[in-house]
Amino acid sequence: MWIIKVFPRKIDYLGLLKNIPLQLVLSIIFSMLIADKLSLNTVRFFYTISFCFIEILLFVLPVIVFSFILRALLGLKNGSILLLLLIFIGVTFSNCIALTTSYFFSKTFLPFIGLQFSPNFAAKLSSDVTTLFTFGLPNIIRTEQALLAGIASGISLNLFKEGNLFKAMLKNKSIWLSDKISLVLTNIFIPLLPFYVFGFCLKLSHDKALAHLFQQYGKVFLLSLFLLAVYLFCMYLIASKGNFRKAFYYIKIMLPAGLAGFCTMSSAATMPVTLRCAEAATKNKNFTDLVIPSTANIHMLGDDLTIIVMAMTLMSVFGISWPDFITFLPFAFAFSVAKLSCVGIPGASVFVVLPILQTYLNFSPEMLSILTTIYVLQDPFGTASNVMGNGSFTLILDRIYNKS
Tens digit of pLDDT for each residue in 171-190? Predict the structure, then answer.
């Protein structure tokens, strides 16, 4: 009789299959199982569908960012400018703290790991899976430009009095536009997300990229994953005021967004899922609609933590002495400022900071090439951490703003 009480008599299997996180996991597992059994053209076909899907999303992304931020700013009664300052100061501070943590972590643990450098490492990773076609959609306006336009419009309109007809009209229009976008995202984008994941993971499995990373860079990779897990848990613990049960509750809510980030390798492309999860965690839709679009492209804890571990590993392998902390500080600040120009596409972060690595840490072109290759390989984990980090950052910022 106790078995009947513990396990339900009837399981809603149809409802279970409609669960998006479960669909994502099944897509990943299924793609890994059949990747070697499919022809190259078949893999290219599914990858092309995924690529076109993300191309369309990134094309309309500036409109999404602009409408969400404008609506959020117009919905704030007071303190909009204070909130914006809090967001960008908080992002810079958070990035610097993550970089510094990774620096001391690397200095402490990397000496215990032995690495063998492979000169032809990058050559082994070339992929023959390419798209059959693309839409070639033009880049009319960049995401960061839409972000600035939304912020400028929101602040300017907040200068008008509350009863102003022009302000009221634009506020209603912004609500209408963001509601329509949310409807499309909820009914089209999120249900189709597992299909996109399937095509991308077919390519990843066909290239055997993750297996190669484990073989050639396994110890450092595992060390990076350990750092990411511990750091993110500490972030959620801070957000929950030291309550372990609440921290795990927040992590559980944000996991679908983290998994979507793992598959898309783009914080911007994952934004609809991140918004949905963060709103469930904060219970403050207006605040979340402002913070998530504002920080998705510039607050990347996963990149902060992993790039420093990779950089210091390569410096050790190439016989370059690690910088002391006084030398590292200007690098960390320049790194954080450079991240503000990222547009949220896969690989954008590392390409932006390559000149910083060359200038402050004396990286050679060969070192930059290897770092870029390793970064692209472990980018799914870094992006998942970026998304999870944005969730914890939003929770912490919500607490600070409410107190202030």
Answer: 788 788 878 877 777 777 77
